[in-house]
Amino acid sequence: MSKEEEAGKSRGVAGEYPPQYGTFQGYAVAEGTPVRQRRLPCCGIGCGWCLFIIGFFLGAIPWYIGLLVLVCGRGRMDPREKPGYIACTIAAIVATIAIIVGATSPRW
After folding, report:
1. Whole-angstrom Cα distance, residue 56 to residue 87?
2. Which of 32, 60, 70, 100 has the fewest Cβ atoms nearer than 10 Å?
3. Closest CA to 58 of 100, 92, 103
4. CA 42/CA 8 separation, integer angstroms
5. Which of 99, 84, 90, 88 is nearest to 55 (CA)?
6. Helices then strands, each counted (H, E), the chain
7. How many Å apart are CA 84 and CA 40, to the nearest integer?
8. pLDDT tens digits along 10-49
9. Got the DSSP string for 63-88?
């Protein structure tokens, strides 16, 4: 036997996979009526992302509002809006650190 034939035997027949891969024919189909979710406020991007974008223009105040909404409004929050509020929280923390460092640094 040549090396090519031995290599062919170890790989198996073309198009077959070892059984541990679990290949099958077909695909899953979700049956039933599709679920419609309500549209997000603020042009469909959500209040959290809207506050995040506006925070760049209004001096970080909307970021602190987003932080308060995230902390105080846990039960009634749409899970699709949570990333925007988390972005506001991170931006508020970074802005606070920048303000503190800027206020305490010596003047040149």
Report:
1. 12
2. 32
3. 92
4. 60
5. 88
6. 4, 0
7. 12
8. 555 555 656 666 656 667 666 777 778 888 777 888 888 9
9. HHHHHHHHHH--TT--TTTHHHHHHH
